[in-house]
Write a structure and sequence with these properties.
One of its GO terms (biological process) is immune response-regulating signaling pathway. The chain is an alpha+beta fold and 232 residues long. The protein has 1 helix and 14 strands, in the order ββββββββββββββα.
């Protein structure tokens, strides 16, 4: 583990959270210090921080942000993985990745090739299964995904990575000139059809309305003729 110091220092400490601490003094001040585990064991896995002190200072620096040393234990079988709804989807789709193994009581982690840290973590409810959801995927989510799990007893011990699934987010293809012209012609045909139907409907309405007016007028004239023929 390498501690990068913001200034030259002669004393450097490496702390394991809840465990060992390591000290290294330098005859000559340097801006980096390395600590080695030549035979890594399960007890070496954990979360580490660095701290340093310059030669003229009484106090030490603040501790660094932590890094995790995770030990891969091949005695654990890697988890299985599946992807839904499909390997190839369009942008905006919600994609579900499911991981499972035969060992219950574990924390599952979702990894994406090219990323040093897991992208999601989920504690199993005891059934040995975890479900990860990628909401509204974009082309940047395309890639290869794998799962690992960590037993409850050992927070920094991991199974090997399991089988992979490939996700491909394909953007909507741009239309060619011929396709655009064909779509435009189709839209124009639909519009013309709607206009023609509207004109026909209005024509039928006016014809029916005119006939009804003529019929009412004829009825009115007939009544007037009959009334004029009545003798006094």
């Amino acid at each position: 583990l390498r501690c990068h110091l913001p200034r030259m220092a002669a004393w450097v400490w490496l702390y394991q959270q809840g465990g060992w601490s390591y000290y290294k003094g330098k005859e000559k001040e340097q801006n980096a210090s390395e600590f080695f585990f030549f035979s890594t064991k399960r007890e070496h896995a954990g979360r580490y921080r660095c701290q340093y002190r310059v030669s003229w200072s009484v106090g030490a620096s603040e501790k660094s942000v932590p890094v995790e040393l995770v030990l891969t234990d091949h005695s654990y079988s890697p988890p299985s993985i599946s992807l839904h709804p499909d390997q190839r989807v369009g942008p905006g789709t919600n994609v579900t990745i499911r991981c499972w193994n035969k060992n219950s009581g574990a924390a599952f982690l979702l990894h994406k090739d090219g990323s040093s840290d897991p992208i999601q973590r989920q504690d199993s409810s005891g059934g040995g299964t975890a479900t990860f959801t990628l909401f509204g995927v974009t082309p940047a989510d395309s890639g290869t995904y794998r799962c690992s799990f960590r037993p409850w007893r050992y927070a920094f011990v991991s199974s090997p990575l399991g089988d992979s699934v490939m996700l491909e987010v394909t953007p909507t293809p741009a239309l060619t000139g011929a396709e655009e012209q064909s779509r435009a012609n189709m839209v124009m045909a639909v519009v013309r059809g709607i206009v023609a139907a509207l004109v026909f409907g209005l024509g039928v309405f006016f014809v029916i309305d005119a006939r009804s007016l003529w019929i009412r007028r004829d009825d009115s004239c007939g009544e007037q003729v009959e009334m004029s023929a009545i003798p006094y």
